Amino acid sequence: MSEQNTINHIGFVESVNGQSALVRINSQSACASCHAKGACSAADQEDKMMTVPTGGADYRTGEQVRVSIARRTGLRAVAFGYVYPFLVLMTILVILTAAGASELQAGTWSLASLAPYYLAIYLLRDRISNTFTFKLEKLF
Q: Scanning 37, 41, 135, 138, which has the fewest C-beta atoms within 10 Å of its C-beta?
């Protein structure tokens, strides 16, 4: 995969378990490198843990690695997490408002409509996770 078509993060192997490795990635917002981040509450930085298949390669705890995913796959994750729920919420809101429901009722039902969506995502998490393929490579 070319650099343009992938999303890459540098991480460290926390543990190796059979054919997968637990990798710690330091995730930071775009403004975390800003010189004014100390005076701004928008800058955030946190460690994320993810399990990545090793592909049969030998990895050791503490080793620095690059985790890659296809850009289009990353965009699909954004769609599942943000775009589709927004569309569900807005569709229900518009339908209920057009049907004559009060704003309070329409808003409440719109928010409540997200519960089945996220429940379905949770129940289908194994099937969905199979569509997101991460690559792990050593950094020397």
A: 41
Distance CA 20, CA 5 (A): 24
CA dihedral 137, 24, 5, 32 (to 10 degrees): -140
DSSP state, residue 113: T
Place of tokens 């503490």: 62
Query: Could you give the maximum distance between any two Cα atoms of the chain, in Å?
Result: 63
Global confidence as pTM: 0.63
Residue at 39: amino acid letter:
A
- pLDDT over threshold 80, residue 76: yes
CA atoms within 13 A on the CB side of 4: 0
Q: What is the rounded CA–CA span in Å between residue 25 and residue 50? A: 8
Q: Which two tokens stand for residue 90?
A: 């807005």
CB contact at 8 A, 56 and 140: no
pLDDT digits (tens, 9 = 90+) for 36-72: 556 555 555 678 888 888 888 888 888 899 988 888 8
Q: Give yes or no for a contact between 128 and 117, defined as CB atoms under 8 angstroms apart.
A: no
Q: CB–CB of 85/117 below 8 Å?
A: yes
